Structures are given as structure tokens and as C-alpha cells.
Amino acid sequence: MHGHSYKLFVTVKGTPINDINNVKNGMVVDFGDIKKIVKEEIVEVWDHAVLLNALTPHKELGEDLANKGHKVIECNYQPTCENMLYEIAEKIKNKLPSHVQLAYLKLHETENSYGEWFAEENS
Asked: Is Transport tagged as a keyword (predicted)?
């Protein structure tokens, strides 16, 4: 087992709000709204968790960790950076306002090792 301190980059696209009476005039979406989505849907769920493939032959290890008070999350995939991006994309897309589209994700698991997700490749 090993862990990482991930860094996630999120890029969205849309047309900026054009309403002088709207406090978010000129924004596609408020950065704070994106941060809130990421915090609630990803960070608070996965932070300090052990992600395990639900089909792992080492399921007992996960059960033992959970019984000792560790946060264990079973995934329906091998929890690699690449696969995690698909789940992150779905979580973010489901929470974005209808006028905003997810365009790009980049997930660093180390300074020089990362995966990327592009909307045009995952329509």
C-alpha cells in the first residue's frame, strides 16, 4: 500500500454571465462554487481514505483496516490516477450549473506524475 497527496486541476467552459445586476456578472462560474463542489464531492469523501478495488484478492486487508478505524472505500475499478479521473469527472459534471461544462481535469499524484481527462475524448 502507498498513498499520495493529490493535486487536482479543474477547467470548465461556458459563456460569462452578462447581467449587470448579477453579483457574478462576467463570470462563467464563481471559483468558490467549483471549490465547494470539489471539496464536498471529492476531498471530503476521499481525504485520508484507502481506496481499494472491490474485486481485490486482498479484501481482508481493507476489512481489517476498516475494523481498526481507517476510512476504506471500495471502488468498482482499480484506483489508479487515470481511473479516478473518470469518477471525479462524473462527480463534478453532476454538480455544475446547466450553463457550465466540464472541459478538462488534471490529477497529479506526484509533482511529475499525473493523469489528464479531456471532455472531447469522453463525450
From this structure: no
